[in-house]
Amino acid sequence: MLMKLLFQQTPKAYRLLSTQSTLPLLNKCSVFSYCSSSQPKIPPSNSVEQLQDQPNNTISIDRSGLYNPTEHSHEPSSDSELVKHLKGIIKFRGGPISVAEYMEEVLTNPKAGFYINRDVFGAEGDFITSPEVSQMFGEMVGVWAMCLWEQMGQPKRVNLVELGPGRGTLMADLLHGASKFIKFTESLHIHMVECSPALQKLQHQRLKCMDEDGTAEGVDKRSRSTLTGTPVSWHATLEQVPTGLPTIIVAHEFYDALPVHQFQRGSRGWCEKMIDVTEDSLFRFVLSPQPTPATLYLMKRCKWAVPEEVEKLNQIEVCPKAMDLTYTLAKRIGADGGGALIIDYGLNGVVSDSLQAIRKHKFVNILDNPGSADLSAYVDFASIKYSAEEASDDVSVHGPITQSQFLGSLGINFRVEALLQNCTDEQAESLRTGYWRLVGDGEAPFWEGPEEQAPIGMGTRYMAMSIVNKKQGIPIPFQ
Ligand code: SAH
Predict the structure, then answer these.
(1) pLDDT for res 58
(2) Which atom of ligand 1 is closest in space to residue 130's alpha carbon?
(3) d(Cα 104, Cα 139) in Å, to the nearest integer?
(4) Would the CB of 259 count as within 6 Å of ligand 1?
(5) What is the pLDDT of residues 48-88, one digit of tens each?
């Protein structure tokens, strides 16, 4: 019933997908369209041949710079603020930093991180995400949230949390789609967990927020979205969201931005890949000579895997932040009730070597001009499942299922049909392309435009997983 009502809603002015763009509009898993193996290929500049741990290729870290600072140069440095900062950490720490520390600084350094000061999404930005592809994505996530809310017994007050909301498009489409379900929208308090002040502002605008004093200004004050009259608050971390209310959490392309540690197998066993600076002042990868603190997480991750899974790999990525976040999230759902939906690209098992950089819809070297390109890594869904189950006996984990199965079971086919009934030719083209991008697999067969601009389906490369309080039973559509 709920779904039928939703699909019958009159279509709003469709967001047009930028099919006119000359760029291929890369989503982060498009690397698969360039390679056939099950693990992504990384541009050659990221390969670590120079690191091969052979007996005659000793890896040593030069700490002499600490004690004998190089001569002061009066040449103006062309390094960006972030590059200077990274080199400063490496220099003053007296040694290389982990790939995870590098990734965290590059993405979320409070002054110059990739996400911090600008809008990086869409045709004009660096990559495109599903909510930006079509309004149907946020609407379907709204259907999932409403179904869960019904399974929760229609509580009068619910925290709806979004982790990493980007431009706020998913939440705006969710609210728009749900706006006729007054009991649902009236129960909500929205919490946006976002580290970027620039994106917080965009989210405030996208949700058409008014502050309590009647202005549409800042994100610090108490705000209300005029789309549905729902209160909205912003936080830098999930821990800052108040506890004590049943909670629905959505994380779309959030986990892939969490920093990963990379390990490489050598004659000494597993060594962590680190980043340091050459004498020519360039970043490069080196291998840690001793075990690093993150090795504990590697051991934990390997214990969860069957030996054969690890034996065949020479590189492994682990994401302690993903494990810790899942632990916090599962504890909250176990205590307060509700559930979480995680959608991302990744694998249901140990990830080998997936870290990639995208700038202006093109793959680039991870070490090239940090801060000017997005860094992201495959999400290890199996590790999320184990972390959640470790955190609480009161939660159950479902999936991952493919994005195509997820959206298909929630009724995206009916929604696209309904929208197609009442639109212009241009909108119809955009809807078909958007639909394919969300649920298709590979290049769209109907595409008649330039080959390099063919829409690539994200339907099987992206996966959905849900963690719910056991009281709710199995969430729709994971049955
Ligand atoms: N969900 C959005 C955006 C995905 S990009 C979409 O699908 O379009 C990742 C988002 O997470 C951005 O909004 C980024 O600023 C935010 N983010 C990344 N790392 C974060 C962190 N450690 N804490 C809070 N927000 C983070």
Answers:
(1) 36
(2) 7
(3) 31
(4) no
(5) 433 444 433 334 443 433 344 444 445 456 899 999 999 99
pTM listed for this prediction: 0.88
> What count of other Cβ atoms lies within 10 Å of the Cβ of residue 110?
12
Cβ–ligand 1 distance for 126 under 6 Å, the answer no
Six-digit token string for 103: 């990734």
Q: What is the CA 431 to chain-centroid distance, rounded?
A: 24
Q: In 10 A of CB 218, how many CB atoms? A: 14
Alpha-carbon distances of 390 from 189, 310, 326, 331, 339, rounded to whole Å: 28, 21, 10, 9, 16
User: Which pLDDT value is given to residue 260?
Assistant: 98
Is 134 in contact with 173 (CB distance < 8 Å)? no
Q: Which residues are within 8 A (CB) of 146 and not within 5 positions of it... i.e. 6 or more apart?
A: 2, 178, 181, 184
- Cα 70 to Cα 3, 100, 280: the distances in Å are 67, 27, 12
Question: Would you tell me the crossing angle of helices 412-420 and 425-439 to the nearest 10 degrees?
Answer: 170
Q: Give dist(CA 415, CA 410) in Å, integer.
A: 10
DSSP 355: -
Sign of CA dihedral 425, 427, 429, 432: negative
Which residues touch 464 (CB under 8 Å, ≥6 apart)? 341, 342, 343, 399, 400, 401, 402, 403, 405, 406
**What is the C-alpha to C-alpha distance for residues 219 and 360, in angstroms, rounded to an integer?**
28
- Probe target for ligand 1 pocket from 115, 116, 358, with the most ligand atoms within 8 Å of CB: 115
- Helices and strands (H and E) in the chain: how many: 16, 20
The DSSP-derived string for 440-476 is: -EEE-TT--S-GGGPPEEETTTEEEEEEEEGGG-SPT
